[in-house]
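Postdoc handover notes: sequence design on the structure in folder B. Input tokens:
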């Protein structure tokens, strides 16, 4: 379907409503659920199914926005739960029918260190209702400030302990990443195998045998993979490089070879095996137009298959019968987005998340034996299918004719282009991330209120291959910003968006893009809202260098230097694309929102922007979220954020009229 086909700048509509669902939904009325329905965290998050497929555990949300852990016995219907008010739960996974591992984090401070996000693994004995924090405070010589303490390397076969990696050397300037055996009952760890200060990762097998170790020497730019053979370490791969040649991710099921994800080719990422004699295989999982988004692996990091990125998930797996059943599952979903979240140990029951156009997102259990898809729970019980907007992927040409994919969300009763609508522009964070055809709480809120929502996957985004990502290197405020601008202009030219009612809203990098829009294309936007934004690239690079123990040799600093530019050589360029230096150019009112506990983008980035806009006499509001981190992890502050955004948008571009379909 081509819109305005006489123009070079055409939109190509790629995703249509599932045919079976179109007639039932297109003319139905919808409600305006309360703002809190969108702002509160989903009532079921990060669910997991037990090895025998008898239990499902998840993090839930109470009506007043509090978190709690819930476990459901699928055979008896019995529910048990416990409060999770303080720690922010990030993931849930069963080790056995008795033990669940909850990965959680908490913003904290250690002595003279700045605030950081401390993460930990909590072993929950669901039979005896006992929770134990692993490693934290229970292991001698543990390095005091580190991340990654929530990761399990492998369970041990007795189901009483797990292997975990952790930095050791409480008073060392160069702690080593060792492998520890951690008791599930008391949380205490003891050294299982020594690493060194260059060790990055460990791979262990199902019986506790150590398969491999990955090292990287920052000072000498030396990447190495070592295999444990005959009780000795043997180097099986080595390369001098400033950036990792591949990522060691696990092993194949029979543990006869390691598995790596290789991003070094010119096109799209691939999965390969690395034999224990150091031979890299040809690609096993690879698609010519799909980026690998996620690996399907068990608790011992045996790789079962991959999920490919794109507007909707797709899969490839080793087991051909499983592949056929996944294809059947996709057909049953009728064109909606299907995300496989977990599975029983025999892979006969899959826990899946389904979302998409005009469909209230739900979790289902797919029984492969019965070929049945049973609804488990809605993530937002107060949202009906009629309340969900249409979600589409479109593609358009930027000013240099480069093709940009994007996600468009329309009000529930409208198709793209049926009415000229006020526009919300929502560039994603990262920037190495991408938006998809799935439920987005912020996009759906505004679409439900009658706005058109535009989410461009500009150059620098992930999910569309190495070329698309690398096209964004050095282009903050340049081509990456032009891609956003050009998409907005195409929507206006095609009559889909009202040029007098455009607001840009973004978080993290998207917050930078929002501020850059206000600074460098001020005539385009009537309001600018930035959540946890970067406003000053030079100060960001300086803080990244300062906060890393390895300074300019750190992965983080090298990554941002490649993506943004060198803070010395490119200083003038970085200053020229930093919105904080162009406060006088803003025409639209600005809303800044930032968590006080943000350890990813420090709140001083918003504070700098606030001071600059105030000094320039511009209209600016600054909302500081108490106790909130970078990710809007808490229902209370997400609701506060959404309330501020809704009021700000309505004040500056007006409330959208109730949309009605002409069909």
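Designed sequence:
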């Amino acid at each position: 379907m081509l819109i305005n086909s006489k123009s070079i700048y055409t939109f190509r509509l790629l995703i249509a409503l599932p045919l079976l669902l179109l007639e039932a939904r297109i003319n139905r009325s919808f409600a305006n659920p309360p703002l809190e329905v969108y702002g509160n965290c989903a009532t079921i998050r990060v669910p997991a199914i037990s090895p025998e497929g008898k239990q499902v555990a998840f993090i839930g949300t109470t009506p007043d926005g509090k978190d709690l852990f819930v476990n459901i016995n699928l055979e008896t219907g019995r529910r048990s739960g416990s409060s999770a008010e303080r720690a922010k739960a990030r993931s849930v996974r069963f080790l056995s029918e008795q033990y669940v591992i909850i990965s959680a984090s908490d913003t904290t401070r250690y002595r003279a260190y700045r605030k950081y996000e401390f993460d930990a693994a909590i072993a929950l004995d669901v039979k005896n209702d006992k929770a134990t924090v692993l490693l934290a405070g229970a292991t001698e010589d543990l390095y005091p400030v580190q991340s990654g303490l929530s990761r399990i390397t492998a369970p041990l076969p007795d189901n009483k302990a797990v292997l975990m990696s952790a930095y050791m050397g409480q008073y060392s300037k160069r702690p080593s990443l060792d492998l520890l055996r951690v008791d599930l009952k008391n949380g205490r760890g003891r050294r299982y195998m020594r690493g060194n200060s260059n060790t990055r990762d460990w791979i262990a097998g199902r019986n506790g045998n150590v398969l491999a170790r990955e090292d990287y020497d920052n000072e000498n730019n030396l990447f190495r993979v070592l295999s444990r053979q005959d009780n000795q370490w043997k180097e099986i791969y080595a390369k001098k490089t400033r950036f990792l040649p591949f990522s060691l991710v696990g092993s194949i099921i029979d543990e006869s070879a390691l598995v790596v994800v290789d991003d070094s080719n010119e096109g799209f990422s691939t999965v390969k095996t690395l034999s224990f004699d150091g031979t890299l295989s040809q690609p096993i999982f690879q698609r010519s137009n799909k980026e690998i988004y996620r690996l399907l692996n068990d608790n011992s990091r045996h790789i079962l298959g991959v999920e490919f990125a794109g507007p909707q998930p797709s899969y490839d797996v080793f087991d051909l019968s499983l592949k056929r059943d996944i294809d059947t599952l996709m057909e049953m979903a009728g064109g909606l987005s299907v995300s496989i979240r977990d599975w029983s140990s025999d892979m006969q029951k899959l826990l899946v998340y389904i979302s998409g156009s005009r469909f209230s997102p739900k979790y289902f259990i797919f029984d492969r034996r019965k070929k049945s898809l049973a609804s488990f729970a809605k993530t937002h019980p107060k949202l009906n299918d009629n309340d969900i907007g249409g979600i589409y992927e479109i593609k358009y040409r930027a000013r240099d004719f480069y093709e940009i994919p994007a996600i468009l969300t329309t009000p529930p009763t409208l198709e793209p282009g049926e009415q000229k609508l006020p526009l919300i522009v929502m560039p994603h964070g990262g920037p190495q991330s991408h938006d998809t055809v799935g439920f987005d709480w912020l996009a759906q809120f505004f679409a439900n209120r009658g706005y058109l929502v535009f989410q461009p996957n500009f150059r620098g985004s992930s999910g569309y291959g190495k070329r698309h990502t690398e096209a964004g290197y050095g282009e903050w405020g340049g081509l990456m910003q032009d891609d956003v601008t050009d998409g907005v202009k195409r929507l206006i030219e095609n009559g889909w968006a009202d040029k007098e009612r455009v607001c840009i809203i973004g978080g993290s990098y998207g917050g930078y893009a929002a501020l850059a829009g206000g600074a460098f294309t001020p005539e385009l936007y009537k309001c600018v809202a930035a959540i946890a934004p970067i406003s000053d690239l030079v100060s960001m690079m300086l803080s990244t260098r300062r906060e890393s123990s390895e300074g300019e040799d750190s992965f983080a600093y090298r990554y941002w230097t490649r993506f943004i530019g060198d803070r010395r050589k490119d200083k003038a360029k970085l200053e020229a694309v930093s919105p904080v230096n162009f406060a006088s150019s803003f025409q639209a009112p600005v809303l800044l929102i930032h968590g006080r506990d943000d350890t990813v983008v420090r709140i001083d980035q918003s504070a700098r922007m606030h001071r600059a806009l105030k000094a320039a006499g511009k209209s600016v509001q600054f909302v500081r979220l108490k106790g909130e981190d970078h990710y809007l992890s808490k229902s209370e502050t997400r609701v506060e954020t959404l309330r501020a955004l809704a009021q700000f948008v309505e004040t500056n571009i007006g409330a959208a009229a109730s949309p009605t379909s002409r069909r």
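Context for whoever picks this up: The CA atoms of residues 44 and 60 lie 5 Å apart. Don't rerun without checking with the PI first.
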